[in-house]
Amino acid sequence: MVFSSNPLSLSVPDPTFETWLRDSGYLDVIDDHQSAAAATDPASTITESTTTIPITGILWGYLVSLFSHLWILLSLFTLNPFSKLTTNDFSGETPSWTKGFFGDCGSYSFPAAVSQARLRVHENVKRYARNYASLFILFFACSLYQLPLALVGLISSLALWDLFRFFSDKWELDGFPATQQVLIRIAQCATAVILVWLNVQMALCCALGVSYIVMILHAAFRKLTPVKQPSRGRRK
């Protein structure tokens, strides 16, 4: 559905109309409106008439634009992208990687303001939560491939707990809760030693760092696309 900036501008003020769009799920309309408003901002078109604006004014416009973009980029790492994420976002179907997640060249643009970046990040993280989780698994697998000892440590820790479960069932340790708790603590300590000694935490930190950077940049630059609104039955 396509809206003009505010088709009810004569009777509904812009803040009220924007609130209605947010509550109704038309966040893509807000995103397009903010991009269009930034494109028509006089400050962004200062370089169009070079004959009437002094060279210092042009340079000043470039500096303002540069620092504005840098400020938006830095603000991305102060956001909490998971503030609106819920477990239900992982229960749906994974969006298409080609049309949904990646899109085309026209699916990306630099956020015009910090508010637009925040809107995109919060909404895109919810929409593409399963895609980002898949990317984390991929990056973690690549990290383990680059660090063979970490892969050995991860497999060893999993094998340790499988052995513990096997002998726990064989010796029926459920009837001896005190002994079972002591053995669990010993297995936990042994697992921690194995993971730290074989640098599994290094592979995990690398995967988390790369995944977070890719997620925050993709979510901020990816334009919001229309979502299918639930059909509303007519009242009889």
TrEMBL record:
Specify the signal sequence span: none
First-listed, main subcellular location of the protein, grouped into a coarse class: membrane
Where is it found, in Gene Ontology cellular component terms?
endoplasmic reticulum; Golgi apparatus; membrane
The UniProt entry lists membrane topology as:
Multi-pass membrane protein
What's in the keyword line of the UniProt record? Answer: Membrane, Transmembrane, Transmembrane helix, Transport
Where is this protein localized, as stated in its record? Endomembrane system; Membrane
Family membership noted in the UniProt record: Belongs to the PRA1 family.
Name of the protein in its database record: PRA1 family protein
